[in-house]
Design a protein that fits this description.
The protein is built from eight helices and 15 strands.
Amino acid sequence: MRAVSTIPTIDPTVPGAAARLVDAYATYGFAHLVGHGVPEDLVAAVFRASHEFHASAAEQKASIALDERHRGYIAIDTSTTRHSPLAVVTKPNQSESFIALREDPAGGEQVRAGHYLAGPNQWPLWLPGFRPALEAYQRAMVALGMRLIGLVEEGLGCAPGELSRHFAPPTTWLRLLHYPPRPASAPDDLYGSAPHIDFGFLTLLAQDGAGGLEVQTPDGQWAAVPPMAGAFVMNVGEMLHRWSNGVLRATPHRVYNRSGGDRYSVPFFFDPHVSTTIAPLAVCVPAGEGPRFEPVHFGEFLRGRLQGSYLQHQARTGG
């Protein structure tokens, strides 16, 4: 496994960042994001919260098991990447995680409207500092996500607000992942996270020092992405790929934890509101050609993905 040596680095604060972003994601599909403005102490606090949560007793974690709104604890061996176009996946991902989405009050507007997945999060009340740490991090990441939408709009040449209006409010997913050590005798198809493409708009990943993330390069080879201190690994998901009519490349990636120890990572998924219908932007469709993709309703797309990949959702739907 070779390490990637040519990952583009994007700093949203420098001139020309929008053009560089589009070039990076049209060519490579992944980049390191620096100059993002998220304080290091917020990132460190989220990793501490993750370590504390995953060190909790199994019965404590199970008390907030993943619910029908996709919030809570996801135990190991309960998630399988069944929609991967990159590999035949039959074994569950070798990771456990805690996931928090946007916090919607039980009687709030989003819940009253009946939007898919709307609702409050489940929190580990035995860890008093956990929720404040995650909510502070989430606020910073939402602000960053909104800045990045502006770069995407500028880089693609669409009107200001053409994309951002679909993020009122955004669908957000903050996931605390723990990967146990991979046995030396494990078969090749036992992944920490099987080959897949993220289904949303943008993913911003904070890694620890263990490594393990591998991406598929433009020539079809798999290459390791070593952690860079202070940077996020940023990749495009399927919805932005569709919105851009395929101009921006959704990055195939996977995880093998070959470190010999535990691996922790914190992906933040920044997506449009579930009521959004995604169709290729007119500015991205060449003159005289039709769009490459049919419109897709994001909420219904999500429902299919979650029911196809998580035992908890399959049990609730009879699938």
